[in-house]
């Protein structure tokens, strides 16, 4: 995907709406395409988090790895959804695992460069933080709900 089509994509994407043309241009410069094959892991808990992603095509499963047995899927993400917020919060480590449920195309964004601009331009940083806190809330609520469903012992109220 070239910068022109990335620019057009971001300018029509709900998550990026309301940003100035200058910010959208900067975000385009901080982005690149990334492809995952079905079953490929994008990141694991504890690994360094320095990116976030937008799913262009395909599907990504956000999971909590189990000590024994299969990982617990807490959220299924699809086309146009934004993935990853750990790049924004110290200690900049992933908290979940993600795996491609099908061949997927993503835009990956350079979190370190974007975080540096957030520090230089607090207004931009605050706008971006507000958008990511919505994602955090949705993701954490999905994790809580899924764990209650999966790990609720029979007869426990």
Question: What features would you highlight for this structure?
Answer:
Jelly Rolls, alpha+beta, 4 helices, 157 residues, single chain, 4-stranded antiparallel sheet
Q: Can you give a write-up of this model?
A:
- It is built from four helices and eight strands.
- With 157 residues, the chain is α+β, with helices and mostly antiparallel strands.
- It has one domain: Jelly Rolls (Sandwich), CATH 2.60.120.10.
- It has a four-stranded antiparallel sheet.
- A hairpin with a 7-residue loop joins strand 4 and strand 5.
CATH superfamily: Jelly Rolls
List unreliable stretches of 5+ residues.
none
The top level CATH class name: Mainly Beta
Strand order across the largest sheet: 1-8-3-6
Please tell me the overall pLDDT.
89
Q: Helix fraction?
A: 25-40%
Give the structural class. Answer: alpha+beta
The CATH topology annotation reads as Jelly Rolls
The fraction of residues in strands falls at 25-35%
As a whole number of angstroms, the C-alpha radius of gyration is: 16 Å
Number of domains: 1
What's the CATH architecture?
Sandwich
């Amino acid at each position: 995907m070239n910068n022109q089509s990335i620019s057009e994509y971001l300018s029509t994407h709900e998550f990026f709406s309301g940003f100035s043309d200058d910010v959208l241009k900067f975000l385009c410069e901080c982005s690149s395409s990334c492809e995952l094959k079905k079953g490929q892991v994008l990141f694991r808990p504890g690994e360094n988090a320095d990116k976030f992603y937008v799913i262009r095509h395909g599907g990504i499963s956000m999971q909590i790895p189990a000590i024994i047995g299969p990982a617990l899927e807490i959220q299924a993400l699809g086309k146009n959804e934004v993935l990853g917020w750990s790049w924004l919060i110290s200690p900049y480590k992933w908290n979940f695992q993600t795996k491609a449920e099908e061949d997927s195309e993503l835009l990956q964004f350079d979190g370190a460069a974007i975080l540096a601009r957030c520090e230089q331009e607090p207004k931009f940083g605050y706008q971006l933080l507000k958008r990511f806190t919505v994602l955090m809330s949705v993701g954490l609520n999905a994790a809580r709900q899924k764990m209650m469903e999966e790990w609720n012992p029979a007869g426990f109220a």
